[in-house]
Amino acid sequence: MAKESKPKKQAKKVSLWTLILTGVISLLIGAGGTYAFMYRTVRDAQTVNASMAKIQAVYQTLYYNYYRKVDATKLEKDAIDGMLKALNDPFSEYMTKSEANSLNNTISGSFVGIGIEVQKDGDYIKVIAPISKTPAAKAGLKAKDVITAIDGKSIKGLALEKVIAKIRGKKGTSVTLTVKRGQTSFTKTVKRASIPVATVYGNLDAKDKTVGYLRVTTFSTNTAKEFKQEVKRLRQKGAKSFIIDVRDNPGGLMTTALQMASMFVKNGKNIMQVQGRDGQVEAYKSSKDYSKGFKITEPTVVLVNGGSASASEIFASALNESANIKLVGTTTYGKGTVQTTQEFKDGTELKLTIDKWLTANGKWINKTGIKPTIKADYPAVASLAAINTKKTYQEGQVSNQIKSLQKMLAYLGYFKGQANGYYGADTKEAVTNFQSANGLATSGQADKQTVVKLETQVATKVTEHDNAYEAGLKALGE
């Protein structure tokens, strides 16, 4: 549960291992429980030792007897990857030193990239969420998009480390991603930039200056502190209620989610629960230790969507179930597990799922997500796949790309016909009118320049008409 935002290494070990692992062990070693725990540890150690003896024997046999020279490092990594693959858990993974450093950098400091949180998805890479206001977000990448190629070359089977290295690069340079969204594939060229460290952005509503809006992009080490500062600043400017936006927030540190949820939930009430492999459940409750005595009692709503994952879901569910705060938007991602990391002497790290986490009321939302109190979303056009700009579309052609073109033109008021994917006379007329209105050559053909202009205008109109935000404002007034 530590992705786009991550504390410095020492802080990470304390916040995660101490909070999560020690808490679970304390459930096992209680009055009368010490002997049973020690017996199981010895018994399990014997089983592990027997298994490792076989693995070591196979390793030595391969290393010394295979007819060609064996790369010991690759053999070791592939063996570990094989064990993790048997877990069938995309959130448990072995990271090389450079991959671990990359993860640390993305969470604890600024870095050059495009601003997406990704995970391994079979042979390819899946987007958990783009970070707000980054090149990835501006390019229209969305949660659950699958990246299949980079700069025209397939990434099938490539390690996550290598994929991340390909996506990153020098500031100002561009990377072209081949993306699969549903059944549609398209390319997006994104310019790399410095990704900001700040994780909380706040402002007053443009019309109602008593409503404070806070956008939380990730749950990193300093997010709770940033959040507190923004709330104080908005209060000083006149905020009497708040809209908290965790849409497309891929999560981060469990500790930070607990700290922020405690600002809203009364002390002593559940924030979340954690269930270990033995089935025992431990509740995490709101307390002064988490909130440092800072409480937010003003009317509040929380905006969520399919890109709200992990720590975002802990935060949102706690406010909903323990503080009766409404959630507005669409169903969240559904990541109901907790991970921790173990660092080895060579700088590599093992990220492992160690627990389920349950909501304050004991629900496990894994793969199902959290349903909002009030459903509200961007218009359907916002979910359309980007149009392939390497092609020019013209009269007589038929394709799903043309269907998307028609829907975008209709959204802007240029196309009145049926969006069926056929580039007929009515589509040509709509394209010509759009080109004329925007100072483009009136060819009636949807070339790259026309498509880019069209998508930009659609994106601008969509963001100017945020249905979930408007629903949140309405809910505050009820």
Automatic annotation (TrEMBL):
PROSITE patterns, per the entry: PDZ (PS50106)
UniProt keyword Hydrolase, yes or no: yes
Domain PDZ: from-to ranges: 100-168
Single GO molecular function: endopeptidase activity
GO cellular component terms, semicolon-separated: outer membrane-bounded periplasmic space
Family note: Belongs to the peptidase S41A family.
Name the record gives this protein: Peptidase S41
Protein source organism: Ligilactobacillus agilis
